[in-house]
Structures are given as structure tokens and as C-alpha cells.
Fold:
Amino acid sequence: MRGFDFAPLYRATVGFDRIADLMDRALTADVAQPTYPPYNIEKTAEDAYRISIAVAGFTPEELSVEVKEGALIVAARKAPDTAEKTYLHRGIATRAFERRFALADHVRVTGATHEHGMLHIDLMREVPEAMKPRRIEIGRPAKAETPAIEAKPVETVQA
Structure:
């Protein structure tokens, strides 16, 4: 059961529907989130991030990374093993998975690398020029060209 009603937020704001949807999704998500595969999210610079996912046992060809509808989707499907192997202990899980990460506005994936059983996905937040803060110069009003008024002597009335 959800304890929050976001309807007033939708009625009183314009353009913040993604934030409300994200909050709604976070509060209604299942408590039993999948923990496979383990991953880290780190901030590598002011506007740069890296997601590292442990993908031991997968080759780069068996991994898929794509951005779709504001989400980063990482999936893996192990090719069927044709060789007969007898395991005494099998602790390296190579089951198929799909992991989704919601991306904020203006965050784009800049690259992905696979090394030593880890998949590293680099992300960069690029704020458009129109949204960056900028200083507005305050100008002075232009002098209006008004014709000079000639002064006329005032006549005094004597009684």
C-alpha cells in the first residue's frame, strides 16, 4: 500500500512529471529487488559518472548496453554451452539478466568497456547552453533627445 498521493503535485506543476513518476516508481517498487549482478555507481568528476557491473563469465558479445526512453538497459544472455562439463562447485553465476537505470535529463552514455570481468559504463551530464546560468547585464536607459525649450520672460501684472 502506498501512503503518498502525488495528484496535487501533478496539478500544481508543469514539466516536473518525470520527477513525480520517479518518486512514484521508487515508492511502489517491489521490496525484493534483484541483487544480481552486483554493481557500483560512482561519481568520477563534477558532471561524470561510472556504473561498474560485475559480469564475470560473460564475453562482450553476450552483453548488451542500450539507452531507451530515458533509461539505461544492461542485459546479458549466455550462449548455450555445447561442451559437456562436470562441475564440482559452480559459484560463478552466468544466468541471463536485465538491469535498468533511470537516467536524469541531459545525461548521456559516453562509452562502455569490458575488462577483468567488469563492465564499466561512463556517463556524462551535459547541460544545454540555454539552461546554464548566465549573467544578464543591466543597462541604462538611452537618453531621449528632447528639444530644448526656450525660456520666456514672465510678465508681471502691476495694479
